[in-house]
Amino acid sequence: MSGPVVIVRSVAALRAQVSAWRKDGLTVALVPTMGALHAGHLSLVKRGLELADCCVASVFVNPTQFGPNEDFARYPRQEELDAAALASAGCHVLFAPDVAEMYPDGFATTVSVSGVSEGLCGAVRPGHFAGVATVVTKLLLQCLPDIALFGEKDYQQLAVIRRFARDLDIPVRIEGVPTLREDDGLAMSSRNAYMTPDQRAIAPWLFRALTGIADGLRAGAKAADLCPMAISGLLKAGFDSVDYIEVRDAASLAPAESLDRPLRILAAARLGKTRLIDNIGVEP
Ligand code: AMP
């Protein structure tokens, strides 16, 4: 079923397409994105097409998940390139609503998730996860896919989405997909395009800092000793600031000290105006 991707802009047209597939007995995967698609996004589409017959990718730069001093206005928008990339990955439909379609006049509802939304990115970006949870809830209910795929690259976001999908009984399987990286370890991200060549050369130290902490935990060291060292290492490597580097329980995201269960090491750091995030898992 590969060919040009069909671009759909209204919820009604999306629902008509999904109903037609359902009548034919086909299953549906949804991949929500903000566009400026790279190979990491396309790996979600590929996984979606392994798990379902048809794939919808949404591209919507969601204003409600950006803070007032964040990069909403300059976030890259390139629909034609995105449509071509999705077609090459075998994606069937690009759902590209405008802001008025998603947030019509009078819109007044927010999905807010406590617990997993707090700390890490939630502490540095107030309101961010409520914006994500609200728009992803809408996308899930607009499309009602069998399965929705999200990257582990945004590990806290994935935890937030799993939480509200379960709490709100949204009948969709949530599937996490491993992070795709450049050859030097840098996690692929639409925001990598913001970096100057000098910043791009420093950026892989974020991944190296995470793997260094994983090695330390495996050798029996404690998070409380490893994380501050990693922060000074990043500043020495040329990062302008570090929002956090923390070790958490991989499932609950509760703070963790040593490798007595599956853990996740998560970090966010800034190179000029570019904020990079990354995380890796480590098992006992
Ligand atoms: P974004 O467009 O940045 O909102 O990302 C859309 C989806 O793609 C999210 O579920 C991300 O976690 C996922 N994603 C972004 N970067 C990567 C990557 N490097 N590898 C795998 N998934 C990714």
Automatic annotation (TrEMBL):
Chain positions recorded as (R)-pantoate binding sites: Q65, Q157
Active site per database record: H41 (proton donor)
Protein name: Pantothenate synthetase
Record: residues binding ATP: 34-41, 151-154, 180, 188-191
Cell location: Cytoplasm
InterPro entries: Cyt_trans-like, Pantoate_ligase, Pantoate_ligase_C, Rossmann-like_a/b/a_fold
GO molecular function: ATP binding; pantoate-beta-alanine ligase activity
Pathways involved: Cofactor biosynthesis; (R)-pantothenate biosynthesis; (R)-pantothenate from (R)-pantoate and beta-alanine: step 1/1
Main location per the UniProt record: cytoplasm
Binding positions for beta-alanine per the UniProt entry: Q65
